[in-house]
Amino acid sequence: MAQLVSSLRLTCQVNVFPCLVLCYLLFILVGGVVFTAVERPVEKELRAEVAELWRSFLQENPCVQESRLSELLGRALSAHHSDVAVLKADAEEKRYDFTSSLYFVIVTLTTMGSDTYTPKSDETKLFCIFYCTLGIPLTLFFLTLLSNLLLPIVTYAPVQHLHSYWGLPYTQAALTHASLLFVIVFSLLFLLPALLVCMLEPDWSFLEALFFCFVILSTVGQGGNSLGRNWSLSARETQELFTTCYLLVGLIVIITFRDTVLQVPQVRAVIRLLSGPQYTELESIHLNELSLNEDHCEKEPQYSQSICTISSVPFELMSPYSELQRATTCCPDTS
Amino acid sequence: MAQLVSSLRLTCQVNVFPCLVLCYLLFILVGGVVFTAVERPVEKELRAEVAELWRSFLQENPCVQESRLSELLGRALSAHHSDVAVLKADAEEKRYDFTSSLYFVIVTLTTMGSDTYTPKSDETKLFCIFYCTLGIPLTLFFLTLLSNLLLPIVTYAPVQHLHSYWGLPYTQAALTHASLLFVIVFSLLFLLPALLVCMLEPDWSFLEALFFCFVILSTVGQGGNSLGRNWSLSARETQELFTTCYLLVGLIVIITFRDTVLQVPQVRAVIRLLSGPQYTELESIHLNELSLNEDHCEKEPQYSQSICTISSVPFELMSPYSELQRATTCCPDTS
């Protein structure tokens, strides 16, 4: 019986990489199917609406040639795509000013991307390529440095407290802390801003506002649904400023949360399992770590400020820390 | 003299974090100034063009009420923003089909974001939030796993070869290899695709095509400038398929390149220096490592397949590897 279990475990470990590939493909397929199924009817409806508007306009204005109207609309759409105010009401107000520029810089460097501001001239495009090649890694590096300053306060100290004062085993302390942090982060970073957005833009439902917050902080970028299209210029500038701050602060908190989750022993065990045979062979996975009350889990690092844990927050460019530390502190033993 | 140099070095090390903050703010400001200066005249020109078109249309069609035209245009623009084909010519062709859905899934999960497809219904938005919360970390994890398979072939073996057969010191071998790889990656991943795009879309300049490739692979997202707006449906579907493949393969190569760069000792030294006092105190930076021909640089890990280097490619979620390995291989010494 024990042999069967251990051989089953080995098979599972060896085949984990192909399984992961298969599951991922399935995940993508399911996404594709759901989006097609749900979106198609909505799109059909919207399209019918526009066609009806078009038809009634031509009927009401018989002097207008359809081809001429098409031309006007086509040009207007392409100009609108480059964020040029097409409608008279906007035209007086919208300008590519310094605030907009700063907003563009931040959303581009965080790879969120802006759909309302895009470089129009060749010089800007060239500058943008060089600027981002340097700036994107720098921004991620910088955000991670700031998150590193947050980690001892937000994660190490509370887990240590839960462990030593409340007497929770290390794995439980880490898991409890991560769950609590999730609730706090989700409330402060998503629910609260979504409520604020709802209050500011009464046309939007709460879900729309939540989605708006989500696409910003996931750096996916807001596809057209931008806030404040009908606001005054100064209100829109304030909104851009707030969005920029929200994005930067949010990313730092999310990096901190991610690193907190990656410190949870159960999460580590799952990732080790999923990393495929080349890692499992080397590291001999303990599936037991997945359960909560194993004694050996207590041997995990205790969030002390030792050289092994102080710089444990690699994100993108931060990975060199672990590299460096392995090089300086660990490798001498093996080389 | 030696004392002066060493005290200067210490000052530099202690103040490196505030300096970094200052430099980063300056970097952002310069970006903002340049974008404002270059973009404003171009935007003014475009806006004047649209205003002229609008005026001449109203002059030619005196029966049209300006307010009515504004309304039509406003509705058309907002529908266009949700990727509903507004013009008759497109309307027959464009559909939210399965290919488009898959394209949307991939560009969203890689956080590039699509400006042409956005969820329109509430159900899709809710699904999108859950799907991405799970999918974005999974995608990054998956791409890094694949890049890990590439790294021994693309980086470890060539550097080892340069080191042992060509007799180059380790630091020089790593630097030479990284430079060569940069030329190859830039040619194959940016210049070649940009040339192809140029051939397919004769209206675009080479710079426009290069910018198009750049915003895809940096996951910033193509702000409106999407390829193939005037193409046939099947051509556009093929283009979406190719873009998806380009994005995924490109990201794997870029992750591999990034990790290659992070293995270069000079890069490590710079990052160690920039990481601020809390790291420098612990690790006692050797600025000498910045020079090429120091003997002690030879002591860097030799790209062997030891446990210290095999999993040296943390990217986003991959960071647990280094965590894990420190926990399993290194920490027993310090705890």
Describe this structure in words.
Chains A, B: It is found in: Membrane. Chains A, B: It is a multi-pass membrane protein. Chains A, B: InterPro entries: 2pore_dom_K_chnl, 2pore_dom_K_chnl_TWIK, 2pore_dom_K_chnl_TWIK1, K_chnl_dom. Chains A, B: Residues 92-150, 184-262 form the Potassium channel domain. Chains A, B: This is Potassium channel subfamily K member 1-like. The structure is a homodimer of 335-residue chains. The first copy, chain A, is built from 12 helices and no strands. The first copy, chain A, has a domain at 44-81. By secondary structure, chain A is mainly α. Chain A is 71% helix and 0% strand. Chain A starts with a helix and ends with a helix. At the A-B interface, helix 2, helix 3, helix 4, helix 5 and helix 6 of A face helix 2, helix 3, helix 4, helix 5 and helix 6 of B.
Based on Cα principal axes, name the global outline of chain A: extended
Q: How big is the Rg of chain A?
A: 26 Å
Mean pLDDT of chain A: 75
**Separation of termini of chain A?**
41 Å
User: How many β strands of chain A by DSSP?
Assistant: 0
Helix proportion of chain A: over 70%
Structural class label of chain A: mainly alpha
